[in-house]
Design brief:
Strand content of chain A: 15-25%
Strand order of the largest sheet of chain A: 5-8-2-1-11-13-14-12
Largest interface: A-F, 37 and 37 residues
Structural class of chain A: alpha/beta
Largest sheet of chain A: 8 strands, mixed
InterPro entries (chains A, B, C, D, E, F): AceGlu_kinase-like_sf, AcgluKinase_fam, ArgB, Asp/Glu/Uridylate_kinase, Glu/AcGlu_kinase, NAGK-C
GO molecular function (chains A, B, C, D, E, F): acetylglutamate kinase activity; ATP binding
Order of helices and strands of chain A: HHEHHEHEEHEEEHEEEHEEHHEHEH
Site (Transition state stabilizer) (chains A, B, C, D, E, F): 34, 248
Shape of chain A: globular
Radius of gyration of chain A: 20 Å
Protein name (chains A, B, C, D, E, F): Acetylglutamate kinase
Helix content of chain A: 40-55%
Low-confidence stretches of chain A: 296-303
Oligomer: homohexamer
Keywords (chains A, B, C, D, E, F): Amino-acid biosynthesis, Arginine biosynthesis, ATP-binding, Cytoplasm, Kinase, Nucleotide-binding, Transferase
């Protein structure tokens, strides 16, 4: 090895060693990754997300992927000669649409299993129907019937824990049962949040298409690194938060208030954003934290 | 209760008691059910098959369902504006066809999970990609490339055993990985046979659209109840067996020669054909047996 | 198979399928069967009771048999040249009588083990002395010393749970230890009730020689199907209940108030009465229920 | 404490310490004790045998008691107005005799359980019928039918191992099943030997009414301390051994040749003969040893 | 064997049998032995203490040894050319002293492991640093800095339980970690007490160089056999207790009030004092008991 | 984050991802690290070795440290006023020298435990005496008595496996028992090799003070990267290998021929040499491999 080679190798070793405290901190902890948006469309980003999750698994974390499939569902609905319809941003899901949604979500699901398998990770792709995991109530949108769209009312974690115990990585698509035993479509953010709560995840990370939460959406310098739930509620009350961020932030608060220590809104367009968030002190995106988590975070990692 | 009521109730109790030796015989044994054909199209038959499997599970057996989805794949291929193509009876499976096949098979898969769930059975629908279960080689058909069609080269049973151990009923659709990490379509009969061998199933039952194996296909009285593998091979050598029965019979022989004690070709058009086969001495369909199984069968059940 | 044969077979299959919800409901639940009376004398009834218990075991229940041996004890006491003596319906049990009682009860015990063994069920016959299971206080009858007759003061369930865990069916005869380490005879109803409470049985069934509880013993149409504990207490307070039913009903109330969901007084003279009670909605005999059990019963089984 | 008291206490402590290597040697080893003869009739000897077995259990051995009940069976047969009958030293066991034999053996069985219980030892009294443990063939005596007398053809050790695992001391009476599912009487020496072989006991000890094996029965100084199986066979061939010792010695050889390291013929009339044999170097009675055991014995214990 | 030999052997057997109730009483209970003083200097006494502990282990107790090394540390400090220094009876422990203390304590530790090994006992010698067991705060002595001397603030029992579960006997030397990750010396009495509390020991025995606690130190007849914690506190309040006994008695009270049933101050100069205390009713030394322990003690052992 | 920061962070993430296949390859495999030489003297190198081992543990490997203490033993021998003596390179180890050796080795042992503890790793420092792990024969050096120096004759791995199972990192110093129960000093290379063989390690790494094995020691360009055992033997036969490398290379061959797949001679003077060897394809030092390992190595890691 030349001296320059050696210097680079030593630098690499140094970086691995710097990962020590982060690996230690989340060892055997469950991390739920809500996977969606651009990171799911761009093949290169996709591969990097899967590499990140694979690494988390190998160094001792217990990751769970919950994914959506929004755009691809619409494209297949059109292929079948129908027109996608939305009310208040919610897909109107009649019988044939639900059938297509289930097909597409399962296809996406198994493609993620494939990518993990390629990296040597044993994964198992399931939906909320398997093991009777997700039970839903029919969701109404402003009083209107929007078809087979559901609100989660209970999560049976038996199958998830069974898979984790035997070292499989669960990849979950957000479909559940109604009391009529019919399949219902579920918002993927809601599913990720409900699952993170039910399994007592240490961390829940949303891969999104935005940089994080802005105090003032028009001021790119106002990105918020960390928010306590109190601050997050104040922000919501101030009325400056809108669009898709509103339900997402509500989900974050809900998760933190129900036992998930840290919820992250990450910019899925940044390659390896998951690793960057977990293995560096330079936070990216916005973290919503419980008071305990904040304290723990500061005390624990001293490089 | 009236006397007539009581008489009927006693008759029912008697029937339950008569099931005793059969329940005992297969207690904690694995039974692989290849589910396909009419029994998958007719809604009433479908429900009865699922009831049978549910009962087998509840009385202590360990059933595994392996299913196909042939007709529905073709119908969705057409819906997408393509024309299904076959060479030597094998579906030519190009990229878009494979995509549709995977979507349809997963849809069918989850619908079976739903039906079991309705009966209170915890099921988990997986494909051969999950847990890296089915690895395949590319199949050629008379030297011609027919696309993503695979021959199973190895079965990793870890996930299946993990699910069985934790009391989930595995429902499996026949898709596997190639060495190129691509998804490949697998003949469902082949998959059922390979899985039955790999898990050391006690029994493998094919639900088909025929009454069984005929010594002379034109003579409806020549239905064969039991065949040893030697007899089955003689029959194949005689050249009287043809059509879809030929590969099926080869599969049966292969399974029996690799440790599955009993393989059954059942008429899936008869309601509750699974229960009839297992809980009565009046065999239906054709059984291919190892010599040991024959002896065991006769010795064990004395009503 | 002829068409008529087939029709009958299908009817049988249907009956098995109808058992599904009942099997499911009691899966892995403990059922204590107090076995006595005519069902123990008549060889045909005896065989049917044992068949019922064997079936319950095979379909996943955990039955425990507690039996008496009253008439046979008296007959052996006479054989030995003594005269059976009773005070207030309780056998005066001097040393030689106790010796004979223990011998006879153990003989009956092992004969039940034999019958189960014949049906392929692994049973283990024990008395309350084994594993130090039953500890008693000396019972007085109206102030009179009636010898080695005991009231249970504690139940050590270690041995029972050990046998159940390793899949043995416990057959128990009601003999216990006094503080003087002497063997004491225990009323079999009391023993069944105490054991059912101690192991947290789901169900306790008394096989008796009566049809059940009558509101008016002289009116055969007044048989009561279900009683809550409150109603049972009212009935006792009304003074219409007498004879052997009085302590039995007290036992039932005691069991239900201590965690056993359902206690049944069955007519052991009806063949397969256990199966009839468990696998049909047409109740036979009288059930004493907790309020929760009643609700559960109605909600759960919808055919 | 006075000086004299203290001196005695120190002597006691010394004795306990001297037991160290013996306790260590048999730690967690199975010891089968065939209990019979005078040690079963004399109440004081009985109590001392049970104390010995209790101590063995408490210091970490796994004792199993196999007992007979010969004299008491005859006495109860007479009580019932029948006359005991023997052919070639074997009891002619017709149906009523078998019934009494089973009753008496179970009575003896539970009385040993009682004595152990009194010393705080959790015991479980079973017969060879429980758990389907002992299966027999009908034994003929010189071609004559002697009724329900059996030769053991197989031992199912599941129940024994289950009890040992959960820390119960098995007390076993020698009754087994024939292929006709009837109970058969078994010679207790044979049963002890078969069980010791089947469970892989380290040691098998026969409590007898003789001092051991004599080279010349008329010369009291010719008592043999140790015999290899070869020597034992030579002795048998020499024709000097007769009476009840002949089958017993054959049993010993059989046990040693099938994996039991040491078989002892002890004089049950000596109080604490079991402890004396195990905890001292001064052997009492006669030991039949495998070559390995002899070597091991000499090498291991150096006080 | 001669008659005289036999008589002595029987006496020995009798002594072993008399140990039965004591063995039973502490079966699988944890006993912490604080080993120090003369019993650690005299080679013969040392061997006897180790024999006692070995016997306790073999008969089913779970002993843990916690030892000091006081005199030997001073001697090695001097050997290294330094002068041992004490303030208020506490060793001033600068860096080089701590280094020597750790070396000497580990040497003593491994020599005890050797002695146990010689008796066939699998031991594992650890310090409070292993498995992060003992965490300390720096101790001040009347405001003065006395170096690396620590007060235990937490005990992590994972390693101890891990060793006990796998049947190793833990031998522990009293060194712990400070928050500065430096090694700190801990008083062995304090360590034994803290460990006994943390593992929920049944008994804690201090081997000392005194006969026990005297009501009046100058009156040798005033040795106290048993003290309740209330009595012990009164004694302390009376001001008659002084010297090294003061902190020891405080430790005893602390242990009893935190779940250790019985704490013993034994005279380590009496050979086999541990066995004498445990296996005889003639108490030696002084026992500090909880009220429950007193009651239990009297009720349980009736010879 | 600035763009430059981000670029560096991404580079770091990339390096972590590149570690994926290496982490995967040794997941749950045992790696024995012989720790000695400069890497043990230089405080900075020491810390880096411990960081490396900690990282290996955290990412799922099972490292075991075996260490020496050569130089420090001599320094303490001198401190005690004695003169270190060597014959043929082996320390003459009389009683007082052995005492010091044991003290020093245990001190070093616990200091490594401390460093690991500081990084949050649960370690347990043991010697070959603990759990009776290392048994030795007295070693002679050319016929001369060199005192308490031992050759390992057996390794009892119970304690090591017990610690690994419960997630402790074993740190082992090379002292064992002789048949005289005395402590014997063992060459640390020999101990590491014997332990690696006994536990079936995947890898054994020697941290040394040389760069590796040279084909020609005077030609710095002749460093050998990989050697099969055949090549290593040829090299030894050629006579070009001398000094301390000779026994080390023999150890390497011995280990590989007894089941350790890969043995590495690393330059402990290079910081993070362990990580560099394991996480990069650019080998450092010399690897001695089995034929299978070579093949496996090339096939498996394709970056």
């Amino acid at each position: 090895m030349t001296t320059i080679d050696m210097k680079e190798e030593l630098y690499k070793a140094q970086i691995l060693v710097e990962a020590l405290p982060y690996i230690q901190k989340f060892n055997r902890k469950i991390i739920v990754v809500k996977y969606g948006g651009s990171a799911m469309v761009d093949e290169d980003l996709k591969r990097k997300v899967i590499q990140d999750v694979a690494l988390l698994k190998l160094v001792g974390f217990k990751p769970i992927i919950v994914h959506g499939g929004g755009k691809e569902i619409s494209s297949w609905v059109k292929k079948s000669g129908m027109e996608p319809k939305f009310i208040n941003g919610l897909r109107v899901t009649d019988e044939p649409t639900m059938e297509i949604a289930e097909m597409v979500l399962n296809k996406v699901n198994k493609s993620l299993v494939s990518l993990l398998e390629e990296l040597g990770i044993k994964a198992c792709g399931i939906s909320g129907k398997d093991g009777g995991m997700l039970r839903v109530d029919k969701k109404l949108s402003g009083g209107e019937d929007i078809g087979f769209v559901g609100d989660i009312k209970s999560v049976d974690t038996t199958l998830i824990h069974s898979l984790l115990k035997d070292d499989f990585l669960p990849v979950i698509c957000p479909i559940g049962f109604g009391d009529d035993h019919h399949a219902y479509n579920i918002n993927a953010d809601d599913a990720a949040c409900a699952i993170a709560r039910a399994v007592g995840a240490e961390k829940l990370a949303f891969l999104t298409d935005i940089e994080g939460v802005y105090r003032d959406f028009n001021d790119k310098d106002s990105l918020i690194s960390e928010l306590s739930t109190t601050e997050a509620k104040d922000l919501l009350a101030s009325g400056t938060i809108g669009g898709g961020m509103l339900p997402k932030l509500n989900n974050c608060i809900d998760a933190v208030e129900n036992g998930v220590s840290r919820v992250h809104i990450l910019d899925g367009r940044i390659p390896h954003c998951l690793l960057l968030e977990i293995f560096t002190n330079k936070g990216i995106g916005t973290a919503i934290l419980s008071e305990e988590a904040e304290k723990f975070y500061n005390a624990d990692i001293v490089c």
